[in-house]
Amino acid sequence: MKQLTELATPFASVAESSELPGQELAWLQTLRQRALTQFSEVGLPAKKHEDWKYTSLWSLSQHPFTHQAGASSVDAAQVEGLALLDDAYRLVIVDGQYMAALSQLDNLPAGITVLPFSASLASVEQQLGQQVALDKAGLTALNTLLMKEGVMVHIAVDTVVDKPIELLVINSGSTPDLATHLRNMIVLDTNAKATVIEHYVGVTDSVNFTNVVSEVVLADQAELFHYKLQQESHQAFHIATIAAKQAAGSQWHTQNITLGGKLSRNDVHSRLEGEQSHTTMDGLYLLNDEQHADTHTRIDHLVPNTTSNELYKGVLNDECHGVFNGKVIVHKDAQKTDSNQYNHNLLLSRDCEIDTKPEMEIYADDVKCGHGSTVGQLDMDQLFFLRARGLDEVTARSLLTHAFAVEVLDRIPSETIRQALSAVIEQRLPRGINN
Q1: How many Cβ atoms are within 10 Å of 350's Cβ, its own excluded?
Q2: Which of 181, 234, 327, 385 falls 20 to 30 Å from 211 in CA-CA distance?
Q3: pLDDT tens for residues 186-199?
Q4: CA atoms of 267 and 43, how far apart (whole Å)
């Protein structure tokens, strides 16, 4: 079978020439070979795939990316300025390379392991690749083929992490057209609790390509608060998959905030495999100019007595294009499922576009499920109310836009993280003026 697109960057050749970690591990080489075979047969996903019908990777396929980063000048002061939180365990990756001198991983308490992915390969054989499928249309096979760095987080039994763990991924712009393929493994043992933040940021308005897969494994009664903030360049390509498997009584609270990227795609997938497990799946995308952001979520309720709650919101301006497809599947044995899924979008321009499709497939008969979506503009009655009380039009529109967006952030239980993300959102929100 021929590839679905002609590639300006021959990724298979890159795999042969790159110095990828773990070449001494036979099982990893076998996994990479499977990924190479899959990607060589299928290539990049095309719009004929149902999950990619609104998103074309043509511009990505035609760009001549480089995979070898040069020297960068990012220093500790810049890292402090870019980091979301002041007080956190932090692993820093700059232009695809782990920076030990810029990270804050000294004196980790007992039961907490945070390592660069390249240094943890010998310990992740049983989990790596188990939460994602190589044959699924997307870039998982490409990531598996070229994965080079990332983070491995392991929280031992009964361990409660005392402060958040932040993965700070910086593109410095020092290497033009840089492609990085990152793999993250987050494993929580029985009754472990942790907060992990994935933070992707661009220093300059340069073209780059970030391809990241994060795999999450939650044992019985484990609880993970998992945040992803994407602030990359408006010229960047960002393709990400986050996939979790949850055992009995586990809780996964995930929140995905998309601000940057010329073209971005987020696939978020949870498998509720144990009774009394729960998923909270929230997100916010703020788009302007000609940005394109595609969000696909999937929650599989596989056993009885599981719950999920999902809220995604979008604020769109200028000539941007947003896509949301959320799917909840209640399998035939998953009685007593309780699931809610909602997507709400605010359009601030006549030229922006949103394609939204919340879905539920229910094969059990004793469930409580609801879903829906809305698309609209600012409420003129509310705008009039604020104007009548002395606010100018720009301020009134801005206030209403902010109120719409921050509902997602209000669901974050940590005040520190909520305030940090709110400050980022406030700087990024459009002023709310219709074109």
Answers
A1: 9
A2: 327
A3: 999 999 999 999 99
A4: 18
